[in-house]
Amino acid sequence: MGRVSQAQAQENRQRVVATASRMFREKGTAVSVADLMKAAGLTHGGFYKQFASKEDLVDEAIVHAFEDPTAHSPVAVEEHAGDHEAARRMLIENYLSIWHRDHAGDGCPVSGFAADLGRDPDQAARAQQVYINGVRNRAARLATGDDDGMAQLCTMVGALVLARATRGNPISEELLQAARTALTENGTGQSEPQQRTD
């Protein structure tokens, strides 16, 4: 079998990082290298040709998740450019949706990586700094007046994590609804709430 070209090697590396980013958000960073490489459609042996260690891959996967424009949340801002309140409400609705609860691998990296970084905060300084910047950026999207958006983000992430942990029980949807109501109708000091359509 011939050697893999440099372009193919780079493409394989990007595929592994993207696959890891999804799998780690969905299943945690304890996913084995063998399972990860299988999901990426590559052999286990090729991993160490691409990465010095699994920790390096975790680092890159977190960076990738925050840089990925398809990772949950930027759509609301684009759809309502110029109308911050409409964008904020859309972001809250989408974030606290059943779809987001059920699709952690495609979801927000703030909730997706919180538990793993919380267990091992020294895991990777670069990844942690990217995570901190991501938290600040997402909170800024929620900011209103004197509110910096941090408490709103905490409510959203907490509700989503609890809803995922209780999936299959009615309380899961109750948690999402309670957080949506608190953030869009009575928790932000905003003008009259928009009517919900779902």
Question: What are the key terms here?
Answer:
mainly alpha; 198 residues; 0% strand
Number of distinct helices: 11
What is the CA-CA span between the terminal residues? 55 Å
**Strand percentage, roughly?**
under 5%
Class from secondary-structure proportions: mainly alpha
Regions with little confidence, pLDDT below 50 for 5+ residues? 187-198
Beta strand count = 0
Average pLDDT over all residues: 85
Gross morphology is elongated
Q: Secondary-structure element sequence?
A: HHHHHHHHHHH
Describe the protein in words:
It contains eleven helices and no strands. By secondary structure, it is mostly helical. It is 67% helix and 0% strand. Helix 8 crosses helix 9 (125-142) and helix 9 (125-142) crosses helix 10 (150-165). The model is unreliable at 187-198 (pLDDT under 50).
Topology:
Layout: H1 6-27, H2 33-39, H3 47-50, H4 54-67, H5 74-79, H6 84-95, H7 98-102, H8 109-119, H9 125-142, H10 150-165, H11 170-186
Helix pairs in contact: 1-4, 4-9, 8-9, 9-10, 10-11
